[in-house]
Amino acid sequence: MTAPTPSRTYDLSFARYVYDHIDGGQRLKLCMQCGACSGSCPIGTQMDHGPRKLFMMIRAGMKEAVLTSNTIWNCVSCYNCVVRCPRQVPITYILHDLSALAIEEGYAEAKKADNARFAKAFWWSATVFGRTDERLVTARYYFSSGLGEGIKKGMANQAIALAMVKTKRMHLGMPHKVKGVGELKAIVAKAAEIQARHGKEG
Ligand code: SF4
Ligand code: SF4
What we know:
The chain is mainly α. Helices cover 62% and strands 0% of the residues. Helix 9 (109-129) packs across helix 10 (134-143) and helix 10 crosses helix 11. 21% of the residues are buried. The chain binds iron/sulfur cluster (2 copies). One iron/sulfur cluster is lined by residues 40-41, 43, 51, 75-81, 91-92, 95.
């Protein structure tokens, strides 16, 4: 008896690329599709696809769908999935590196301006407090695209904020400052001065 002809064929080139070039990609080969990652993800309901499904889409060669998915941007690095994965797949690293690949490959043009605004907000928090304050960075980032847009983004992302509080990725008290924040500011000012001098010297 001859074996039945498969009704579908898959392009494995994207999966091979991910295995070889994405941080942690080699361990993705060991994913057994148990779903523990998606089941434990506090942001799962805010993602186009949970990590388990996204990994199957990689195997199925669905490059565009993977790299345009909001899953790779909405992960908040809580590591719930990583500690529960029975195959030690570094899910968080994989999602983050896929977002870098999405930018490199031109699937996330709109994210470039977003990233620049986010970097500014991050830098502000790092220099004022010596660390990032998730709420203030997020608020500054959201409102950097205008008051109306900021309110809209804040409302749209309430569920993510609640999930972050629940998983202790966002605190609700006063902003924490590092000790010696004045010294940090002096270091940053000196670095800016050196950079400006080098700029002038060309
Ligand atoms: S928990 Fe690990 S093995 Fe299970 S689906 Fe997720 S990545 Fe795959
Ligand atoms: S690290 Fe990302 S993908 Fe994993 S559970 Fe947390 S939010 Fe979900």
